[in-house]
Amino acid sequence: MVCEAQSGKSAIIPYLAQAPSRKRSSLVAHRRRAPRPGRFHAPHGPPASPDVVTVTDSITLADRIEDLLPQTQCTKCGYAGCRPYAEAIASGEASYNQCPPGGAEGIARLAALLSRPLIPLNPENGVERPRPVAVIDETLCIGCTLCMQACPVDAIVGAPKQMHTMIAALCTGCDLCVPPCPVDCIAMVPVTGEHTGWDAWSQPLADAARERYEARAARLAREREAAEARAAARRAPGAAPSAAAASQAAATADAPAALSATPADDPEAKKRAIIQAALERARKKKEELAAQGQGPQNTQQVSADVQAQIDAAEARRRRLGIAQDGVDPGPAAPAAEDAARNPSPES
Predict the structure, then answer these.
(1) CB within 8 Å of 27: residues ≥ 6 apart
(2) 4Fe-4S ferredoxin-type domain: from which residue to which, for each copy (predicted)?
(3) What is the distance between the alpha carbons of residues 241 and 121, in angstroms, rounded to a whole number?
């Protein structure tokens, strides 16, 4: 494949020669079908011949490294996703043996690209294993949506306070949905037998996972922009008085109902009882799994965003007076006071 730069000189793109043969055609198709923004541009100067692809921005080393990663976005490498890890390898900040889903073959691919020796997988990042798929115990699910927020490829469907389910065909086995679950109702079940690493994965699956990951990132960006626009509209002159009036009217309407409500028909009391029962069932199941030597996976590589969601869920449970593992934290717990002063937007 010949690449013509702005200067008119020709160069050979080396990554196609160094990539595995089974992946070479998919790389070419991917580059022609869905180029990344800012990577390919319209040529300047005289038109090129039909068999020459003219570009003005060559593919970077980080791009070529990313193309060799399995795109599970599991963060086990110590970075937020495959792209940041690829950039860290290219800059020399990270080693090329930190990707457990890629396994030994993934390390061999990167070593060939970088002209480096073969080295074993770093055990601090995990172990090469058969690819698992997340399975949600729907009888224990309480509909908190934390697993949906943690899934990097939108493989979980559900709604708040409704049962969630996993789309097995879309799951990359990243384990990221397990730590946020407050009732431990998610299990990682191996589905590839003895096959591990790239033998348990494939290039089409990796390409599809990357597309879903990028589509999710774009959707979250749109949602953030829409939320910021709504917040700006509420802060605009003339919007504050109407919002305050609506809030006062709602408080006035709720006051008689709160005075007339009895503990028997208190919806908050019913809600706490239902959640407490679900937590009690989950606690018993957790004890059974602990007795068998099983427990949550990937708890050492939890990102800051996921940990913040877990902390927010814990604060909401304390604020509602819900005990965890049979211990009532009490209304005077410091976390409950912080949550009361700074309520989460999800509560």
Answers:
(1) 15, 16, 19, 67
(2) 132-161, 162-191
(3) 60
Q: What is the pLDDT of residues 238-270, one digit of tens each?
A: 654 555 555 555 555 544 444 444 445 677 777
Residue 134, token pair as written in the block: 């997340």
Contact 151, 164 (CB under 8 A): no
pTM (two decimals) = 0.57
54 contacts 78 by C-beta, under 8 angstroms: no
Map tokens 């730069």 to a residue: 5
Q: What does the buried/exposed string (b/e) look like for 103-140 if buried means 16 or more CB atoms within 10 Å of the residue's CB?
A: bbbbbbbbeebbeeeeeebbeebbebbbbbbbbbeeeb
Helix 203-235 crosses helix 239-260 at what angle (to 10 degrees)? 100
> Closest Cα partner for 95 from 111, 113, 112, 71?
111
User: At 161, is the pLDDT very low, low, confident or very high (cuts 50, 70, 90)?
Assistant: confident
Q: How far apart are CA 100 and CA 82, in angstroms?
A: 12
Tracing tokens 């690209």 back to the chain, one arrives at: 113
pLDDT above 80 for 194: yes
Confidence grade of residue 211 (pLDDT, cut at 50, 70, 90): very high
Q: For residues 8 and 101, what is the distance between their CA atoms, to the nearest angstrom?
A: 41
What pLDDT, in 10s, does the model give residues 288-321?
Answer: 776 776 655 555 666 677 777 777 777 776 666 6
Q: How far is CA 96 from the centre of its chain?
A: 22
Beta strands across the sheet bearing 10-12 = 10-12, 2-4, 53-54
Question: Buried b vs exposed e over 199-233: b needs ≥16 C-beta within 10 Å?
Answer: bbbebebbbbbbebbeebeeeeeeeeeeeeeeeee
- Show the CA angle centred on residue 345, arms to residues 341 and 178, nearest 5°: 110
- Pairing type for strands 2-4 and 53-54 reads parallel
